[in-house]
Amino acid sequence: MAFISIIVGIVLLIKGGDWLMRSAVSLSLRQNIPKIVIGMTVVSFATSAPELIVSIRSALLGHPDLALGNVIGSNIANLGLVLAITIMISPIRVNYNFYKTDWPMMISATILFFIFILFDYNLSSLEGAVMFIVLICFLLYLIFFQKETVVDEISENVNILTYTQITYYLIVGGFSLWLGSETLIKGAVTLAIDNGVSERIISISIISIGTSIPELSASVIAVINKEKAISIGNLIGSNIFNLLAVLGITSIIAPVNVIDMGLVYNDIWWMLGISLLILPLVFIFKRNILSRIEGLILLTVYFMFIYPLISG
């Protein structure tokens, strides 16, 4: 039953996030907000809503390892699993913006989180506020100075909802996110207790992979259908938001304390390592191209990280 609760919770979170994004995008378009601003703010926050709700509820309910493990595991899975599978299906060409903005910002956010959590094994409200302010500054920089380099995430043929539909999807999406987070957290805690494993292991593996499913399915479907170019910036952007928005906002609301030291002595090092690994992979074999060989390397690294956790 615990595992079923986790699956149901993940499905509710995915659907709730999708409904919330549809309503938020439609409302923004009806208010004549520029699409570039919608793509960098509304869409980014909406797609991070499942991770955000789960992390906030986990911290408030006294399960900080679920909050941290969810974000750390998702960031590792985005690069080691989602990106790996995507480029094994179809190679990705890396553009100049990767070197100038995307990768440096991801590493900066990772190191900032690394310093905050390693110093006292705690993310305080002040540290969370600093992380969130850094995110806002980054978004303002992209909106005002890097417009031409941002991939537009809003389709030209987007179906704009009526105000009645917007209200409906906002309510249903919000309720789905709340119910999904409650179901997921209770299932994860029960599964951990029943199997004698830590909440960190459950969050870093099952929950993080589950919340990465939307990114994986969207990337794979887009590659197969050749609907649009797949950018590594999308996944890097997700990692930036997970750290600065999800953990930033969570720790502002409820400071996060590390309980399982495996998070700081093992997991965050893997997150930092795989984030750093992306840069040399861009130059190995074929310059500015991430191909099947790099995908296999990333998948191997992810397996080396996750196997000892799930087998131990």
Produce a short descriptive summary:
With 312 residues, the protein is mainly α. The protein contains twelve helices and four strands; from the N terminus they run ααααβαβαααααβαβα.
Describe this structure in words.
Helix content is 80%, strand content 3%. With 312 residues, it is mainly α. The protein has a single domain (2-311), classed as NCX, central ion-binding region (A middle domain of Talin 1, Up-down Bundle), CATH 1.20.1420.30. The strands form 2 sheets. Strands 1-4 form a two-stranded antiparallel sheet. The longest helix is centred in the middle third of the chain and has 33 residues, at 163-195. It starts with a helix and ends with a helix. The model has no long low-confidence stretch (mean pLDDT 84).
Rounded radius of gyration (Å): 19 Å
Structural class: mainly alpha
The end-to-end distance, rounded to whole angstroms, is 22 Å
Average pLDDT figure: 84
Low-confidence stretches: none
- The dominant shape is globular
The number of distinct helices, counting runs of at least 4 residues, comes to 12
Main β-sheet, spatial strand arrangement: 1-4
Helix content: over 70%
Count of individual beta strands: 4
* Major sheet size, sense and barrel closure: 2 strands, antiparallel
What's the CATH topology name? A middle domain of Talin 1
CATH class: Mainly Alpha
Tally of separate domains:
1
Oligomer: single chain
